[in-house]
Amino acid sequence: MSSTSLPSTSSPDPEATLQSTTGESDFQESVDFYRSSAVLAYPEHDGKVSDKAARDLLAFFRHGREMGKRVENAGLLPVSLYEYVNASARRGPYPLCIGEEADDIPTPLTSIIDRLIGTDAQSDGDQERVRLLLRMDAEIRQQFADHAELPLSKLWDLATEVVAPPADDATSSSTRQTLTEARSRLAVDGKLVGLSHESLVHLVATINGRMWLQRFSEAQREAENLALQINDLLEVDFGASEESRTPDHLEASVGKTFASELDFEALSGIMSESGRHHQMPERRRRRLESIREDLDILRKELLAAGTDRILEGSAGLESAADTVRQDMETMARLSKAAQVARLEIAGRYREEDHDSFFDGFGVENLTDEELEMCPPCLIDAGSTFDLSASSRSLLMDLLASRMPVKVVVQVNEPVSGSTGLFVDGIPSAAAQTAWQATALGSAYVFQSPASEAESIGRSALSGAEHLGPSLWSVYAGAESTIVPLDDYLRSAIALESRAFPVFEFNPGGRDWAERFSVDRNPHPEDPWGCADLEVDRDGELVPLKVPFSFADFLFCDSRCNDLFRWVGPEMWHESMTPVDEYLQSDKSEEPALVPFLWAADEDGYLRRVVPSRKVVRTMRFALERWHTLQELGGVNSSLAARVLEESRERFEQEKQEAIAEIESRYNAELQKTTGELARGIVANIAAGLLGLQAAGPQPAGLSGEVLPTSGPSVKEPSGPAAPAEPSPVGESETLGDTASEGDDAVETISLDEPYIETVRCTTCNECTNINSRLFAYDENQQAFIKDATAGTFRELVMAAEKCPVRIIHPGKPLNPDEPDLDDLIERARPFL
Amino acid sequence: MFGLNTSLAIDIEEPQYNLTDYQSAVPRWCPGCGDNAILTAVQRLCRDEQLPPEKTVFVSGIGCSSRFPHHMGTYGFHGLHGRALPIAQGVKIRRPDLNVFVNMGDGDCCSIGTAHWIHAIRYNMNLVVLVHDNEIYGMTKKQASPTSPKGLKTSTTPRGSYLEPLNILSTTLGVGNVSFVANAVEWIPDVLYQIIHAAFHHRGFSFVRIAQRCPHFMPNFFDCLITDPKKILLLNHENGIRVNGKLGETYSNSMEHDPSDINRAREIAAVSDVEPVGILYRNDSRQCYEDLRRPRKSVSVGMRKEAIDREFDKFAVNVLT
Ligand SMILES: Cc1ncc(C[n+]2csc(CCOP(=O)(O)OP(=O)(O)O)c2C)c(N)n1
Ligand code: SF4
Ligand code: SF4
Ligand SMILES: [Mg+2]
User: Fold this and answer.
1) Distance B136 CA to ligand 4 centre (A)
2) What pLDDT score does A172 carry?
3) Other Cβ atoms closer than 10 A to A531
């Protein structure tokens, strides 16, 4: 059987493992654990088969006439299951470690241990380590059975105590050291889950919660911070309140130690008299208090919804839409609180503008990013067969929406309703939930038998990443089986036989090829799983390749007993054909052939089981369904094959045409070139004869024409680079002047009028102190002469003298009658 | 995150601040004091950058210059002598969203506050630090400061000071992790403005030493520089400041200096015959301390109390048991 789906068999007893591996040098053997010691064998027989046997077999196959032996209580099982059922233990993919971090991929314990073992064990020491780790594997499973709540690392520690109990000797300490080192390399840590519907729901819920928390974390941190900052504002406000200055409050805030040394009455009195005690308006305080509360409570409500809420069954489906709507409203209220808080903190909340805006704030105002932060709504819908038709249609409505509903359903019967009818093998709608959901196009959909731990773990991540609805439809194994298969094998056979294949539809893919995949099925290119067995024939082991077909799957179901008969070797007529070969169309055309499947009895002797025609018909349907999935998943696609064939033909045709064209062009070129060459040679010879110099490589036809400005540029002798567009000298100088002056446009200043070099003014107040109507500051707080007539020449001269940067220029006196003018003019001279 | 659309939610008219919005009490500096020019340049910056007054803090120590916050219409913290920097750092680490400016006198920064000065350079927090260097203790009536020139007669050095002055620029440039050093003179307001503007836009500890006149105790002290523009050496560079036009003509003594060159910056800081004006050094890639140690969560007073109580409880003896 392909190793991807069925586990390797093993001995449960670590000691036994140790013993049986001792002396074995085959490393891989020890990793896989031992297969069961039970050996398959062909029953002994003289080889004689009567023709009557052939007729009987055909009569059963075609018309259901009684023959052979009934399969009830015969202890038969499909031959490829024999070693699994008879193995004393198996290393299956469960338990599965969920991990702890948001990006941890849930990983089967088997893979975790295998990774620790590695593939390069060569020496004896390595093999010792391998055995040790395999014993840990077995022991951790044991511990998990008793302590399902513990994370892997803790189970590892418990297992270490059993596998390598502390002792003083050197071997023990080196063993413990090996285990400590291995523990530090565990690929993931976290809780483990087993195979059950509850575990699966737990896994999906945990991962969804974890991924959502990652999306929400920044907002949640911000909400916390905003609440604290609003709290600060309120605390500061309280500090300005009368209550904060009451003797009692003062006493309480000082503490007991120094209380006796202080007079709080007096302190309260002083504090009330001193300083300004502005409190914020009542309305604002109420607003702040309410957003502080909202930021805290709503954040916690969302947290609980996102990580700790699972709706159940039909009731869960019915309330889902309301629940999502409520989450959105909570998010809207939180967003509103956060926005108001931000405005308040920035001091930009204006009641006249914002009150009405935020009164009307609701879900419609949420940004896309905020909508994406709404928590997922987890629904454990239970078995699809228990859901009423209306619940199922509700489920489809939810999956067709854009809501973050995350639904897990369980499928009990892959091919039919609970009545157990396999009449034509058409699966019931309940079993096809995932398939229907895929057609909706908006939901992430994953279908798988429960046995596929690793795929389910990965799909939990992908489905949680998808922001819209997601569906996990998982087949947990039908209860009716003719042989005592455990939960794991019951679902694994559905995978091998393609009764319930794995597929994934991820609407996030760019194209169909990215969206739909069947890759996680074992050998997705084959019609079904296949096992390579060895069977004892007269003391010699001979190979036997057996498929695990849909017929084998049905054969395991006791409800189908009537559809099969088994026969011993005395009836193994040559007209019998393995059922997979039989299904290949040309063989089933032959009326005399009878299909069979291989089975084994409790002692490992092979039997042939003949299915009725109904079974074969059902197989065809199942195979068709599988082919459809394969094609959709891009495997053996008939469309692709057709396109390939067409393009091969087209390519071939184009190739021929291209060759023809190249040939004709080549011929034309050849003729032309030979002609030119000949002319050239003649011309050269003629030129040589005339003693003329050839005019360089330039083609004669171009001489005299103006060449475009390509090619190497001609170097100018020296000087500045020429301007792109030459302009008259005068103009360019003007331009240059303006540029170097910047904004300081040249002003014409009359030396007769007083002025200040305003840009250099240091705002020292000297001049403005002298006369603030005469001297004033501009918008940059630098002085200028505001009104020369508003003061005297004396004031101008005094200011010029006081000005520390000497930028006041008094000019000429305006009033010729001002006293002491001569003296003042003399004093003004240095400031001209 | 939440409401990325908040600011767009409704069109609120953004307040427009003009210069008077940044003015507060009428300055009580002596007439002609150079602090006025620094005040104006800073107020212009606030207006041009439209810094919300409630998001802007001026922190100072003690001295004439340290009265600065009183004259700004923003938040302010008039601290203790020499302790402006640790207070400003505290404000910044707790409220990185605020624009924090520091005003110190030469005595404040380079005498009593020296230890804080050196370490603040090293911490490289995003602050604009203005040292009003009048080379004297103005407030305490002409006592010698570490930057007073040798031989200056002051009330504490009546026979003239004995030591060579401390070179503020060289000292600052010598501290590891320095990220921005500029030198300005307050009497060329346009250049002062450009330098403070660059300091504001540098992310890190932007240290600006400003030569400042104290006409009251040091009349004519800087006259040799004021009256002879050739004594001013302008440091032009595309990554620094650029002075053209008439001002460029007046201050024609200039050179190109690339502020990323710390060795050249140190050479320039050491010249004594001219006053270099411009950005000596800037390195925008140095990490700010508040980015390294920004608290992830805000902490309320209550939470702080709880945490302290928890710590105390570890050591407390319960008398009841
Ligand atoms: C701890 C302490 N020591 C001394 C003083 C006295 N004191 C007040 S201002 C000052 C010096 C101010 O000089 P500077 O910092 O240069 O400022 P300026 O007044 O020159 O602007 C001193 C020593 C004080 N206030 N506190
Ligand atoms: S005296 Fe000179 S520097 Fe002072 S305010 Fe008047 S113009 Fe400006
Ligand atoms: S004493 Fe000097 S520094 Fe202080 S205000 Fe007066 S002029 Fe300015
Ligand atoms: Mg000073």
Assistant:
1) 4
2) 79
3) 21
Closest CA to ligand 1's atom 9: B63
Which CATH number belongs to the domain containing residue A785 in this structure? Answer: 3.30.70.20
CA B27 – ligand 3 centroid, Å? 11
SS3 call for B75: strand
| Nearest-CA residue for atom 1 of ligand 2 | A803
**CA of A766, closest atom in ligand 2:** 1
Is A732 a domain residue? Answer: no
Ligand 2 atom 2, closest CA: A803
Order of strands, sheet of A96-97, starting from the edge strand that comes earlier in the sequence:
A107-108, A96-97, A192-193
Interval A472-490: pLDDT, tens: 999 987 776 666 788 888 8
- A796 CA distance to ligand 3 middle (Å): 24
List, in sequence order, every residue forming a beta bridge with B60; answer none if it has no partner: B78, B103
If contacts are CB pairs under 8 Å, which of residues 212-251 in chain B contact chain A?
A: 213, 215, 226-227, 244-247, 250
Residues of A in contact with B8 (CB under 8 A): none
In chain A, the number of structural domains is: 3
User: How far apart are the CA of B249 and the nearest CA of chain A, in angstroms?
Assistant: 10
Alpha helices in B222-300 (DSSP H): 223-227, 245-250, 262-270, 289-292
* A154, burial (CB in 10 Å: exposed 0-12, middle 13-18, buried 19+): middle
Output the CA B216–ligand 4 centroid distance in Å: 12
Q: Among A229, A339, A806, select the one facing B3 at the smallest CB separation.
A: A339
Which ranges of A49-108 would DSSP assign to H, the alpha helix? 51-63, 82-86
Contact B226 A222 (CB under 8 A): no
> Could you give the angle at the alpha carbon of A422 between the alpha carbons of A417 and A424, nearest 5°?
110
* pTM flag (> 0.80): no
Which residue range(s) make up the domain with A269? 241-277
Ligand 1 atom nearest residue B105's Cα: 15
> What is the pLDDT of chain B when averaged over all its residues?
92
* Mean predicted confidence (pLDDT) in A344-355: 90
Distance CA(A349)–CA(B7), nearest Å, equals 11
Where a domain ends, among A649, A664, A679? Answer: A664
Q: Give A402-447 pLDDT, tens digit per residue.
A: 999 999 999 887 765 434 445 555 667 778 899 999 999 999 999 9
Whether the per-residue pLDDT at B70 is higher than 70: the answer is: yes
| pLDDT of res. A415 | 67
Q: In angstroms, rounded to a whole number, what is the distance separating the alpha carbons of residues A16 and B29?
A: 96
Give the mean pLDDT of chain A: 82
| Residues of chain A found within 8 Å of residue B245, distances taken between Cβ atoms | 740-744
Closest ligand by atom to B65 CA: 1
Secondary structure in 3-state letters for A240-280: CCCHHHCHHHHHHHHCCCCHHHCCHHHHHHHHHHCCCCCCC
Per residue in A720-769, pLDDT (tens digit) is 444 444 444 444 333 334 344 444 444 445 568 899 999 899 999 999 99
Q: Greater confidence, A691 or B69?
A: B69
Question: What residues of chain B lie within 8 A of the CB of A764, using their CB?
Answer: 31-34, 36-37, 215
Say yes or no for a CB contact (<8 Å) between B32 and A764. Answer: yes
User: How many beta-carbon pairs under 8 angstroms link A with B?
Assistant: 126
pLDDT in tens, A650-701: 999 999 999 999 989 988 888 888 878 777 777 776 666 665 544 444 444 3
Structural domain contains residue A152: no
Q: Angle at the Cα of B133 (from B127 to B139), degrees rounded to 5? A: 105
Domains of chain B (ranges, CATH numbers): 23-295 (3.40.50.970)
Euclidean distance between CA atoms A415 and A420, whole angstroms: 9
B187 has a chain A CB within 8 A of its CB = yes
Looking at the domain assignment, is residue A49 inside a domain? no
Within a domain: A305: no
> What pLDDT was estimated at residue A709?
40
